[in-house]
Description:
A: two-stranded antiparallel ribbon, 11 helices, disordered N terminus, B: 201 residues, 7 helices
Amino acid sequence: MQSDSNGPNTKVAGLNGNKHSASGKKPENDDELDEFEAEFEAAKQEVSDPLEGYNRAMTTFNDRLYLWVLVPVAKGYSAVLPEAPRRGVRHFFHNLLYPLRFVNNLLQFKIKNAGEETLRFVTNTTIGILGFWDPAKEWFGLRPHDEDFGQTLGFYGVGAGPHIVLPFFGPSNLRDTFSMVPDNFLDPVGQAKPIGQTDSYVAEYGVRGFDAVNEASLRPGEYESLKKDAVDFYPFLRDSYEQMRNKQIKE
Amino acid sequence: MRTVILSMIFALVFAQPSMASDQSEVKDIVERNIKIVIDYVKDKGLDKQTRNQKIIDTVVPFFDFDFMAKVCLGKEQWNALNDADQKKFTDLFVKRLQESYLEKLDLYTDEQVVVDTAKKVKSRIYVVTYLVSKGDRMEMIYKFKESGNEWKVYDLEILGVSMVLTYRSQFAGFLKSNSMDDLMKKLEQKGSFAVPTGEKK
Lengths: 251, 201
C-alpha cells in the first residue's frame, strides 16, 4: 500500500556538517544549507554552451526584434482586433499542428494521447469552426497533448547537444534545431505556398510572422517582466529553456 | 523481530496519517493564501501601496526568503561573506524577489489559480497549482520544506523552471568574472538588469 518505504522523518545526514566550523560562521544552519546545496547541485543541468559568444549576440538581436518591431506591431494589431478573436487565431494555429502532435505522440507510444488529439482535431475543426474555438476542452475536458520531434528524440534518449539561439525563433539546442525539419514537414504552414509558386517561402514567412504578432499581442508585458528579473538575461533564458524542455520530455 | 513488527505498526498507524495531514495542511496554506492575495489584487478600492503591503504581509510568513537568498547565492559564496554582507545581500535579494512578485501580479487579469495536489517528495512537500487563463494553463509548483515545525516555501517551479536553479546559475556565472561588490551594486539598482520598458497594457 505504502509506496514510500522510508519513514516520514528520514533525513539525509549532513555529511559535511563540520566543514565550516573553522570559519566560525553560523554552524547551526549549515546542515540544512548543505542538504539543499546537494539537492540543487544534483538537479542542476549542465548546459553545453560552446557558442556562448554567438548566442549572446543573437539573444540581443532577438531582443531588439521583439521589443522594437514585434511589440509595437502587436500593440497596433490588438488596438484593431479585440482579445477574443485573437485567442481564436491562436486556437486556429494550434489546431493546424494536429498532424505534428499526433505523429509525435504515436512515436512515443502515447496511444491514448494520440487518440485524444484526434478527437480534439475532429471536434474543434467542425464544432469549433476550423479550430478558432476549443469546444473539445471547454465541453468535453479534452486537453491538448503537445509533443514535437525534439521531445520524441529526447524520449529515445537523444541529448540536447549544444545550446543554440536561433534568429527569430529564440533559444534552442542542436537536437531541437534539427527537429524543426520533420516538424516543419508536418506543419501545414510549413507547406504553405501560393498556387503555382512551389519554391516561394513568402507565404510561409508571412503566416509565421502573423502568428508571432498574434502571440505577442496575447502576452503583453510578460517578456519585459521576465527580463527585468534576470541578473544576466542570456544564461537565464538558456537555463529556463533547457529546464522547460527536459520537463516536457519527461512528461 | 518484535521491534521490527512494532515499528511497522507504528509506521502504519502514526506515520501515514501524519504525512497525509502535513500534505493537506500545506495544501491548505497555499489555497488560503492564494485566495487572500487574489482578493487584494481584485480589490480596486485599495491604493497600490497599501495593497502591495498587505500582499507582502500575507506572503512573508510562508516563504522562507532568507533561506532562498542563501541557497540562490550558493554555499561557497555565502560562507565567504561576513555577517554584515550576508545581511546586506539577503535584504537586497529579498526586496528584489518581492518587487518582481508584485510586478507579476500587475499582469494579472482574469486568471484563476487551481490548487491541484500536494505530494510528498522525500522530506519536502510539492504543491502543484495551475494558473488558468482563457485557454491557457501554466503549471506552478510551490516547494515546501519543514523548518522548526513550520512549512515554508523554498523554491518555486514554473513550467519546469526552478527559480532557485536559475538564480544559482546566474549568480555563479556573474561572479566568475565580477566581484561580490559588483553583484550587490547590480541588486541595488532596481530594474537595472535590463532595458526597463515600463509601459504595459
